[in-house]
Amino acid sequence: MQIGKVVGHATATVKHPSMQGWKLLIVQMLSVEGKPDGEPILAIDHLGAGTGSLVIASNDGAAVRELLKTKNTPVRWMVLGLCQ
Questions:
Q1: pTM for the predicted model, two decimal places
Q2: What per-residue confidence (pLDDT) applies to 20?
Q3: Least buried of 11, 55, 67, 84, by fewest C-beta within 10 Å?
Q4: Residue 15: what are its φ and ψ, rounded to 5°?
Q5: φ and ψ at 10, to 5 degrees?
Q6: What backbone phi and psi angles, to 5 degrees, belong to 62?
């Protein structure tokens, strides 16, 4: 898990079937100091985060597969929580 800042959203005209109905966010992960850490990632969101929101993101593949109710998905990141 890591803290990140939502810097935008993505729109896809064609998606893997497991991604249908999910909001896609572009999240810039942050270091402990609050500075950008690496390249932004694409994460699914079911909590309603928007641009500028601080989120807790996870790349736990088993949790993503359980959330999406599938064993076959290209999704690697998901939003687990919103930060105040």
A1: 0.89
A2: 87
A3: 84
A4: -130, 160
A5: -120, 145
A6: -65, -40
Please write the tens of the pLDDT for every residue from 20-79: 889 999 999 999 999 999 999 999 999 999 999 999 999 998 889 998 989 899 999 999
How buried is 77 (Cβ within 10 angstroms: 0-12 exposed, 13-18 middle, 19+ buried)? buried
Helix/strand/coil for 63: helix
Q: Which amino acid is at 12?
A: A
Contacts of residue 82, Cβ cutoff 8 Å, sequence gap at least 6: 47, 49, 53, 54, 55, 56
Residue 55 CB coordination number (10 Å): 22
Overall residue count recorded for the chain in this entry: 84
Whether the per-residue pLDDT at 13 is higher than 90: the answer is no
Question: Measuring CA to CA, how many Å separate 2 from each of 11, 19, 37?
Answer: 24, 22, 10
